[in-house]
Amino acid sequence: MDSTTNDPNQFSTYDLSYLSNTTADSGNVVYLLVYDLSHGMAKHFSLIFLGKQIDAIYHTSIVYFGVEYFFGQDGICAMPYSDGCNNMGRPISKICLGYSEIPLVLFQEYISTLNSSTFGVGTYDLFKHNCNNFSNEVAQFLTGVGIPEEIINLPSEVLSTNFGQILSRYQRPLENQINQSVTSGNSFLSDPSYFQTLPDTPYSNNSNSSSVNQPNGPLLSSISNPFELLLSQQPSRLENKNMSDPQGDSTENQETTKEKEESTDPDLSDDRVEIKPKRKAPKYSDPPIVYADVDGVSAVKKILELVGDALSEEERHLMDDWTDYLKTSGEAWKIDDDHLSLISRLLSGEDGKFPPNVPLLTLEILQSAALKDDFVLALHGDRKNHRLMSYIYKIESLTLAEQEEIAKLLCNFCFQPCSFDWLMYISEWTEPDGSPASNSRVTIRVAVHTLLNDKLTTLQKVGVDLIFNLSLRELFEESATELATAVLQYLHLSNLDEDRVFLCLTALVRFMAISLNEVPALTQMLGPDINKFRGTSKRIDELVEQINVKLAAINAKASDD
Fold it and tell me: Is residue 319 a contact partner of residue 303, using CB atoms and an 8 Å limit?
């Protein structure tokens, strides 16, 4: 990744070589703004007072979707981002941390949970839990990488000096002074009313009250986005940003990526902006096929009965958290790295120490969670380690029963738009065997393997369901071609159910719409003769006709050439 800033005339740069593995191929840009609260005095006088040279007293913030977020004594604060000065002065550095595919609405929910928990009012500590710790955590959530270590380690460096020990005795007055210098006039997230409503988008079914009381201000009506309140208190207008769709637009057959739209409510004054996050509507209206007849709560109970003695008291509490989450709604923030680490341990089977059905029960927990609209927040918490996807990546080495449950899990991930997006993320990592992997690659790998595995008929049926679900999306041409190839091989089998044929031909028609030339050519070259399915049913006859039209068009083009 290029470590230079957007405007080298205004901002200095850090050595970001440690971020070299960050991919920047899709999604929305994430910036780290670095301020010097000493305004240059630290660089000149630190050696005298501390006995060591430090360049600045760092204050940092994260910019995402054109809004700047930071943390202080009053919780998390947000304000419109501009390249000019604000209450903290001019940033000494603006660092591109990478790109994120996390939608705005999910990020809002994440910030809301942080503001009501680990980074809420009264949790600020100048030396141990400050704005830089907040920026580091948010950066890891969005991009999988943290902020420069020299910023994180500065407080401990200061405390290691004699003068730093003296400063620690005056921590509260120092915190008050810093808080006043960075937060005057900004919008805070500490009031619960900021989060009473969520945008009416595919990411949320929340359609609560249309009006929210703004602290120290008038009642604002017709507000569909809680962060509009935050921006409404600011004097400047949020600039229109051209944000990329999480799936990118690298192929000519994909829909043109739309800019993030901004519209002003006529009932609001000119200095207020309503942000409406946009996502591409599903290309087809068919509902995905899911396996909803799963009881994750019972699966948790059975696991505790089977391996309870092998779990620590803390791990048993983590399993109780899974039960609570599956029974309630809107509490995905409770599922953190420790919970996912335990899931990974249960899926591994502890090299035979756990009963063989423990991984299957664990997959049932995940299948149940995948149907919830906020579980994607927990999934994004695994961006750094990719434990779940790394386990799924090894599908061919797992038992047939596990393979089937994995395919069902991916089908359930297609139920919610956000988790469907997550399945198809293209940001890459490297598996322990050195193979490049991404969520999209792993998902396609599972679909192809389950469809072409001839050892278990039910596994193939779930594979058909998964490929049909994937055909609901506007895939990249390479993915569509790979899935179409698998479908064509599967259609060579005899005695296929009408329902299986219908799903496969439907997917094939949709893949042809993505790969206009290659998939029809493969259909002619690999077969089978699609006309052999004519007469099976009316709906299949219609699909056969559509395919023949596309094949005829390819043949006509070849004749003209």
Answer: yes
DSSP state of 434: S
Of 358, 353, 377, 350, the closest CA to residue 319 belongs to: 358
Contact status, residue 73 vs residue 124, Cβ threshold 8 Å: yes
The sign of the torsion formed by the CA atoms of 45, 49, 53, 55 equals negative
DSSP 228-292: HHHHHTSSSPPPP--PPPTT---STTSPPPPPPPEE--TTS-TT--EE----PPPSS-PPPP---
**Phi and psi (nearest 5°) for 267?**
-80, -5
Residue written as token pair 């420790």:
338
Classify domain 17-190 at the CATH superfamily level. PPPDE domains (3.90.1720.30)
User: In this predicted model, what pLDDT tens digit does every residue of 461-493 receive, in sequence order?
Assistant: 999 999 999 999 888 899 999 999 999 999 999
Q: Which residues of 96-129 are buried (b: 16+ CB within 10 A; e: fewer)?
A: bbbbbbbbbbbbbbbbbbbbbeebbbeebebbee
CA distance 29 to 96: 7
Our CA dihedral for 439, 4, 20, 105, rounded to 10 degrees, sits at -30
- Phi and psi, residue 105, nearest 5°: -65, -40
Which uninterrupted H or E stretch holds 429?
strand 428-430
Active-site residues: which are they?
59, 131
Among 118, 109, 74, 362, which Cα is nearest to 227's?
Answer: 109
Distance CA 76, CA 232 (A): 16
Rounded CA-CA distance 184/182 in Å is 6
Following DSSP, what letter does each residue of 265-279 receive, concatenated?
-TTS-TT--EE----
Q: Tell me the domain boundaries of the chain.
A: 17-190, 191-235+259-279, 280-453, 475-561
**Sheet of 67-72, strand order:** 93-100, 28-36, 58-64, 67-72, 75-80, 187-188
d(CA 69, CA 81): 9
* CA–CA dist 336, 340 (Å, integer): 6
Helix 439-452 × helix 400-413 angle, to 10°: 130
**Tens digits of per-residue pLDDT, 200-222?**
333 233 333 222 223 332 222 22
Round to whole Å and give the CA distance between 450 and 458.
9
Cα separation, 85 vs 32, whole angstroms: 15
Q: Report whether the peptide linkage leading into residue 528 is cis, meaning its omega lies within 30 degrees of zero.
A: yes
Question: How far is 509 from 489, CA to CA, in rounded Å?
Answer: 15
How far out from the chain centre does Cα 274 lie? 23
Q: How confident is the model at residue 79 (pLDDT cuts 50, 70, 90)?
A: confident
Q: How confident is the model at residue 257 (pLDDT cuts 50, 70, 90)?
A: very low
